[in-house]
């Protein structure tokens, strides 16, 4: 993990211009002390001001704004730094949670204090042996992330706090299998539910059908690959479960109004 200030002297990415789309394999949490800052995350534009946070998760794509000045504190963390129990408790892979967070005054004060303490521990490499220093960092980071996760969960609109366990199991199954399985019936069978039960649970939690939920996840991954990689269109289609490139192009156009080639061009 790393934590430090954002500012004009910070190097964000050494291999590509900031205005290019990047796909990350680690967590990024930015707490802003100025603004507004416009930042693209998974093809949605967010505007953050002083006191707001952006939380970008592994696998998501994002793009910096060339016209905005980034000021505040940034925390980056590799997924394997924390134990599984902490990862689950903090919801580190809840991709349904909003990336833009607006803490209230008391929440902001607590989060800022937690980040300040984490930064002090991170920079203090002299008073403890390395093993203890790392252990203290993990515990301090856990406390900070639990506060952040509570804020994210309470801000969520896409998944009610008491979402049906049927939907949660379906959501997690889709996240694991969307690249090879687009069938609502197959998910229902694998999870031990009737199709009607699955439809009812997904509609109650999201307002959409299970098929719509699956298709949306497939489209998101296709967009990520098109924007971030130079993979041929056929390979992008195959990566999200369409062995035939023509079928993938039709599916993509149906859901986005653009061909994959046109979408890629717009992102470059």
UniProtKB/TrEMBL annotation:
Q: Which UniProt keywords apply?
A: DNA-binding, Transcription, Transcription regulation
The lineage's top-level taxon is Bacteria
Q: Which PROSITE patterns does the entry mention?
A: HTH_ARAC_FAMILY_2 (PS01124)
Instruction: State the InterPro entries in the record.
Output: AraC-bd, Homeodomain-like_sf, HTH-like, HTH_AraC
Which intervals hold domain HTH araC/xylS-type? 168-266
Q: What is this protein called?
A: Transcriptional regulator
The organism named in the record is Streptomyces rubradiris
């Amino acid at each position: 993990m790393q934590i430090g200030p954002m500012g004009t002297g910070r190097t964000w990415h050494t291999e590509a211009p900031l205005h290019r789309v990047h796909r990350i394999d680690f967590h990024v949490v930015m707490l802003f002390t100025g603004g507004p800052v416009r930042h693209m995350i998974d093809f949605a534009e967010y505007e953050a001001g002083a006191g707001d946070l952006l939380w970008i998760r592994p696998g998501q794509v994002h793009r910096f704004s060339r016209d905005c000045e980034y000021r505040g504190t940034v925390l980056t963390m590799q997924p394997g730094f924390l134990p599984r129990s902490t990862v689950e408790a903090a919801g580190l892979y809840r991709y349904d949670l909003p990336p833009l967070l607006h803490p209230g005054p008391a929440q902001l004060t607590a989060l800022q204090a937690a980040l300040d303490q984490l930064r002090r521990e991170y920079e203090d490499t002299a008073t403890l042996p390395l093993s203890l220093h790392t252990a203290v960092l993990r515990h301090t980071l856990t406390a900070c992330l639990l506060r952040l996760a509570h804020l994210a969960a309470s801000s969520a609109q896409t998944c009610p706090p008491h979402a049906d366990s049927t939907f949660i199991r379906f959501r997690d199954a889709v996240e694991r299998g969307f690249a090879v399985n687009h069938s609502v019936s197959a998910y229902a069978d694998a999870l031990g539910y009737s199709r009607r039960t699955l439809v009812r649970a997904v509609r109650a939690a999201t307002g959409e059908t299970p098929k719509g939920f699956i298709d949306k996840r497939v489209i998101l991954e296709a967009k990520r690959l098109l924007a971030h990689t130079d993979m041929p269109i056929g390979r992008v289609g195959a990566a999200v479960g369409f062995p035939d490139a023509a079928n993938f192009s039709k599916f993509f156009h149906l859901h986005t109004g653009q061909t994959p080639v046109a979408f890629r061009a717009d992102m470059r």
